[in-house]
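Input sequence (223 aa), recorded before submission:
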Amino acid sequence: MACKIGAITVGQSPRSDVVPEIAGLLGNVELIQWGALDGLTTAEIAKLAPSPGDYVLVTRLKDGTSVHIAKRYILERMQLQINEFIRQGADGILLLCTGEFPGFHCAKPVLYPQRLLQYFVMGTAADRIVGVATPDASQVPQATRRWQEYGVKNVVVEPATPYGEPSEVLQAAAALKRRGAEIVVMDCIGYTSKMKEAITELTGLPVILPRTVAARTVAEIFG
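Predicted structure, token format:
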């Protein structure tokens, strides 16, 4: 019998840009999707926009457009969704976001892609110059600080949305290589395997993709 995992995006479900790509890596696991912005109107989502000093999240809506929101506005909604997933019998929770989150209350395992990505990078490339792609220029300072706090001694960050033109991602990757990056970390769940392949071909650098790191961890634990 397949395990059931509750997958929560900070945007709207279904994440048709993420889940189909990782499904083949999950093993005997069924993902049930919800989103922190599910059921909200455009006007209601607009009220969640970041203010100066907020932790910024960039995510995808059901119609394929992207949106900037402040993390503080959605934490309670995410906790309620976790509670409901567990009430319905989920065996665990997977967040579909690489942002930093507090520990949610849950009797079952909760997989945080940012933590998985952090330890994966620290275990494989902490002594390298790490080039980080993040979706928006407003996230560059928080991404730089975060990776330095994790222990990466040399980190360079470039913005490139995964929800726009693919050429923007390639331009950011080229900029990271020019700045001395020896490995590229695509720090958003929205970046795709095709983007990873294109970056590898363009730069010749190894590339770490969080959606596949998370998917393989789900398979290891639940598959």
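Checked by second reader. DSSP finds eight helices and ten strands in the chain.
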